[in-house]
Amino acid sequence: MSNYLERVRSMTMSPDARGSGIVPALVTAVFGYSLMQTVVVPALGLLTRELGTTPTWSAWILSAFLLSSAVLTPLLGRMGDLYGRRRVMIGVLAANALGMAGAAAAQNVGQLIAARVVQGAALALVPLSMAILRETLPRERLPSAMGLVSGIVGAGAGAGLVVGGLLADHLSWRFLFVLGALLALISLAMVARWVPGGRPAAAGRLDLVGAALLGLSLVAVLLALTQGPSWGWTSAGVLGLFALGAVLVAVLIAVERVRRDPLIDVAELTDRPMLATHAAALVFGAGSYFFYLALPMFAQQEPGADGTGFGASITVAGLLMLPGMLAIIPAGLALGRISAALGSRWPLAGGFAIFAAGSALLALAHADYWQHLVFYGVVGAGSGLVMGALPKLISDIVPPARTGTANGINNIIRTVGGVVGSQLAAAVVATGGTGPVPGSAFTGLFWLAAAVAVLGVAISPFAVRRGAATVAAQPVSERA
């Protein structure tokens, strides 16, 4: 443990500022966001009962957070590039604390959903943190620091499932958001104390037209994905939303091509390494959500005729996922050494390969507690490498002035992948009908996760450009 703390502390020390708290401040801020991303999941049933609402409305407690994140993250990432990352991060943390306080005091589901919309801004903490790391840390420490912060995203999400279960089982649901408010305030104080102000990394004006078009297109697509199961995938509403999203994307591309300071650099998106990096994020998001749905469901299901399920409590179901989530952190910390020893392309490909191996092991054997603990730990180790490699690859591709924006878009693409993965997982689980989910459905879902990870392995070599370190200083549109 002391060795681990020493490594974390060493990454916070630039040559000019030994003992600084940059990395601990960013880790705390990102952990607070990631914890609150999932902490409400175990409490959804409780919230439905205590707020006197329906499962359809309580589902919006999650969906509103997701949609708000999708709309606000690219915009806030660009604001950080233009006006200073520390300044924007402090504003995001303050808004998050207010959103948490509003949720803790909510008297009905409408007020709670509105508070969750405000909380959605917190996803921007991830790309803002990556941009701050890039501008404050020496290059040799950057991969491990990015891997650590990325790993905290996964570890916090896993901890949220456990903490949410404990609070839902033993205390009021309001303590979920009291905890979130305290974490936001602590993070705010740490960022204000230790993160340097820095100068704006980019010049120009905020592209509000591009932000509006991007936000509306994301809302249309995500609404179609989340409402597809209840409305019907071939219904006029779902098809209309997909069509609207496609039209808005086409208009967005046309508008951004002619803007002097666009939110979306179209040349950047069509550049092969960047396109592959975004595709890897989409694939990873989908694969991760297979497990977020399947493992808690398997653990909490009472054993049926085929013996599938453990009949465990919410808390135990979360604890079964905890080793996998914690494995993300050391894997992320190893990113720097792996990149230095083997090259930039191997952490992403290796992470997907380990993810695939863990998924296959779960597909072959998942009838005992220890198999969930150990094999999902393998998945977690692979996840840590992937999550750390993505922002490092982006920093090798884009100039510093677009680090926050590009990471924000990558995070949103991973979120879209998560929505796709959750809907695919729900469809596979639904093949069992209205009774207990059969073991064959879980087996099929784990094999699907392995197949998706293999696709990630195939994509990975295209995410690296030779000589990336020398070309990242210029915009994609200016490269030969």
TrEMBL record:
The keyword Transmembrane applies. PROSITE patterns: MFS. Residues 22-468 form the Major facilitator superfamily (MFS) profile domain. GO terms for cellular component: plasma membrane. Pfam families: MFS_1, Sugar_tr. It is found in: Cell membrane. This is MFS transporter. The lineage of its organism: Bacteria, Bacillati, Actinomycetota, Actinomycetes, Streptosporangiales.
